[in-house]
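[Q] Does anyone have a clean structure-token version of this?
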Amino acid sequence: KVTNVGKEAHNFVILSGVNKATKLLQPHKSATLTVVFKKKGKYTYECTVGEHAEEGMLGTFTVTK
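[A] Here you go.
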């Protein structure tokens, strides 16, 4: 479950070959994103709205199992 706790619209996109995304979420709205990872590894995510990723709305998480 992804919740936008900010004051602007955002999305949540998992990159790294997965390419799954939420719709554009208005402030205080939520969405559920279901993803099946087929292999271990590091996966990047970011907000693709405007320059949000360049401003720090990005990260990496690791799948270990």
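[Q] Thanks! Anything notable?
[A] The chain has a mean pLDDT of 94.
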